[in-house]
Amino acid sequence: MSSSSESEGVAEPKGEFGPPEPVGEPAELRAALNRLRRAGAAAPTPEAAICLLEAVARELVAAFGRFDRDALGAWRELAHFRDAAGDAAGSVHLLEQLVVDMAQSFGANDPDTLRARLDLATGTANAGRPAVALRQFHEILPALTAAAGPGDPRVLSARYDLALHTANGGDLAGCVYQLQQLVPQVQQALGEQHPLLAEARLDLARYSQRWAKDADVQISWVEIVAIVYRLMVWGFDSDKEAVACLAELERRTGRRDLADRVLSAPDHLTVDQVAATAFG
Fold first, then answer.
1. How are the residues of the chain apportioned to helix, strand and coil, as percentages rounded to the nearest 5?
2. DSSP E strands: which ranges in 54-140?
3. Which of the listed residues 106, 121, 188, 264 has the most CB atoms within 10 Å of its CB?
4. Would you say 68 and 107 are in contact if contact means Cβ atoms under 8 Å apart?
């Protein structure tokens, strides 16, 4: 049956990425496959997710074509779970083709393309190619920042990943510098309780201590707060590691008896307030 707009000779409006979804059976098929796709992403193991997502991706391609957005999204999710299952090389191989197809279909700065490029950079690092991964992160961050804004969680998370891969590549100074810049921005944009802030502070404390062992550098306030946070949440594998961290903090700041000042602080104080009290 023709719609009223067709009977009146008025063209259907186009959506953001082209004409509206087809009515009837194709739309129902797409909805059913996307339900299976979501079920695959929520599967209990990477192996189960891989099995279901590969089947869904192939069905989406058969029904709607290789360059369909949902089909490409299903392949991207499949690549993610291949990496999670330990097949980083297989994940990278798939993502390299997906990035080309997505850029061709949607544009290099489309959100889905940018997400696939981020996944590719992460997978490349996991596949043991840190230099290539660092280049990929450096290439994508300006585009991602321009598209989403500097305070977007995806941008801040990508910068965090870049810092860690910088350290894994042997550049501790570069990692510490990046985390020093990142921590205050995460705190301002995402808030004190966001898990990314906790992770970034803990890693800044760890890498700062490792870097300071080989370099006579002045400690920054952001580093002090990060180390105080690590002491407050006891982010250590052993008491020996905690004692070494505290001794290094006292050496770099010239302060003594910091353990009592930090660990006896009232629970209602924020980490910034505890640090200010301990070093006030």
1. 75, 0, 25
2. none
3. 121
4. no
Among 149, 137, 85, 83, smallest CA distance to 111 is for 149
Sign of the CA dihedral with 42 first, then 134, 149, and 108 last = negative
Which positions ≥6 away from 261 have C-beta within 8 Å?
277, 278
What Rg do the C-alpha atoms of the chain give, in angstroms? 24
Contact 113, 73 (CB under 8 A): no
- Which amino acid appears at position 77 of this protein? E
pLDDT digits 0-9 by tens, 229-247: 999 999 999 999 999 999 9
pLDDT at residue number 60 = 97
CA pair distance 74, 88, nearest whole angstrom: 17
Q: How far apart are CA 248 and CA 257, in angstroms?
A: 13
What Cα–Cα distance (Å) separates residue 135 from each residue in 89, 170, 209, 237? 18, 15, 26, 33
Dihedrals φ, ψ of 170, to 5°? 100, 0
Contact in structure between 225 and 272 (CB atoms under 8 Å): yes
Low pLDDT (below 50) residues in the chain:
1-24
The mean pLDDT value of the chain amounts to 90
- Count other C-beta atoms under 10 Å from residue 17's C-beta: 9
Residues 37, 53: contact at Cβ < 8 Å?
yes
